[in-house]
Amino acid sequence: MILAPSLLAADFGNLQQAVEMVNASNADWFHIDIMDGVFVPNISYGMPVLSVIHKHATKPLDVHLMIIDPNRYISTFAKLGSDILTVHYEACTHLHRTIQAIKAEGMKALNPHTPVALLEDVIQDIDVLLLMSVNPGFGGQSFIENTYKKVRQAKALIEQVGAHALIEIDGGVSLKNAKAL
């Protein structure tokens, strides 16, 4: 199990303090949500803030792009220190090309909130499969119970084709459901 707390829940006025808290914790990664206000109805932070987070973080940066046309920014996010980059299936015209571009930059490729069956042709290329367990765009939402079913489907697909993708759950994870996930 890998723990990646979201910095979306941090006090943006004390972001360095939040980064240092995660550095000192047992967490494995930082989860960083980048939102553009177009693909999702919210705006978070962008490249300058990610650059500052990278400067202070001592753990891998798991960057989740909730933006339109993420291909335009793959190289930029790699240069800003992203170790793992998440894109949404629905935001990519050519998903396989996007995954290959992410990997070419030395980052791991991920893909969230999509019916699992749609990933059959690319699951071998995905390092981590991010399943959305809330509607993307806002923190603090309630966990969607159907996520358990999607996790089972994803695990079955990964095993069926002999892939090695990790499964990551994003949103509404708490002490009440973490063990079951």
Cα separation of the termini: 10 Å
Rg, nearest Å: 15 Å
The residue ranges in which pLDDT falls below 50 over 5 or more consecutive positions are: none
> Structural class of the secondary structure composition?
alpha/beta
What is the molecular shape?
globular
* Number of DSSP-assigned strands: 6
Continuous helix count: 5
Order of helices and strands: HEHEHEHEEHE
Sheet with the most strands?
4 strands, parallel
Averaged pLDDT? 90
Strand content: 15-25%
- Main sheet strand line-up: 1-2-3-4
Helix-residue proportion = 25-40%
List the helices and strands and how they pair.
Elements lengths: L14 H10 L5 E6 L11 H10 L4 E6 L7 H6 L4 E3 L8 H10 L3 E3 L17 E5 L14 H15 L4 E5 L11
Parallel strand pairs: 1-2, 2-3, 3-4, 5-6
Walkthrough of the structure:
- With 181 residues, the chain is α/β, with parallel strands linked by helices.
- Helices cover 28% and strands 15% of the residues.
- The protein has helices at residues 15-24, 47-56, 74-79, 95-104, 147-161; strands spanning 30-35, 61-66, 84-86, 108-110, 128-132, 166-170.
- It has a 4-stranded parallel sheet with strand order 1-2-3-4. Strands 5-6 form a two-stranded parallel ribbon.
- Helix 2 (47-56) links the parallel strand 1 (30-35) and strand 2 (61-66).
- The longest helix is centred in the C-terminal third of the chain and has 15 residues, at 147-161.
- It starts with 14 loop residues before the first helix and ends in an 11-residue tail after the last strand.
